[in-house]
Amino acid sequence: MNEGQRPKPRIVSERRRKVVSKRPPDKVERHEWTTGSGWDVLLSRDVADRITAHCQEMGNKGLEAMGFLMGDYFSWRNNVYTVVHDIFTAELDSTDVSVKVDWSYPEEYIKQRERVSGDLIMVGWYHSHPGYSTFLSETDIRTQRAMFNSPFHVAIVVDPIERKMAAFKLAVGPDDVRSKPEPGPSKDAYKEVAIGIVGMGRMRRT
User: Fold this and answer.
1) Residue 153 covered by a domain
2) Would 189 be classed as within a structural domain?
3) Domain enclosing residue 34, as ranges
4) What is the CB neighbour count within 10 angstroms for residue 198?
């Protein structure tokens, strides 16, 4: 490292914690940008609106958006579901087909990360595909494998032009993923999971 060069802050994707069994909310609504609803990934209306607004703002400039999902996870009837309570982003290095955090501005990332810390953990990320639908590209799959490979980790993809939103998880567990060669952008590498909109306060672990 050159003198005066600052290290990149390490993204802490989770803190080790036990999964808690908790019944999901009875009332789950469909977001108008999704094709169905369920409780695999739960968002409040406010969080969903902030995600789509950020993607639209960047999409109007012809750029991809990206941010991080903060929340918690629970289990119910042998299924793990993810609850997103907040989001944050940072300075981005973005084009019309790619996006990453610009680590030239680490203070912005740290500031936003600390704003939503507390008892929340990072449960995934979101990004946009302006005008080319919702899926995980080969680069997205590599990102998911490297940083978000636990069963509760989710990737939300938004197409602000076509007004679509979908959520994905890896199709196999982290140990299997790390031991296998990296495939191309095959749907066998990931699965779509249902997004539900709920009117919720903070879902507690107790």
Assistant:
1) yes
2) yes
3) 26-197
4) 18
- The CATH number of whichever domain residue 54 belongs to comes to 3.40.140.10
Q: How far is CA 92 from CA 56, 122, 125, 149, 152, in A?
A: 15, 18, 14, 23, 25
Which range is least confidently modeled, 25-34, 102-111, 187-196?
102-111
Alpha carbons 168 and 155: distance in angstroms, whole number: 5
Residue 91 φ then ψ, to 5°: -60, 130
> pTM for the full model?
0.82
Is position 147 within any domain?
A: yes
Report the domain count for the chain.
Answer: 1
Of 154, 164, 145, 138, residue with least CA distance to 191? 154
How far is the C-alpha of 173 from the C-alpha of 177, rounded, in Å? 6
- Per-residue pLDDT tens digits for 49-63: 999 999 999 999 999
The answer to whether residue 4 is domain-embedded is no
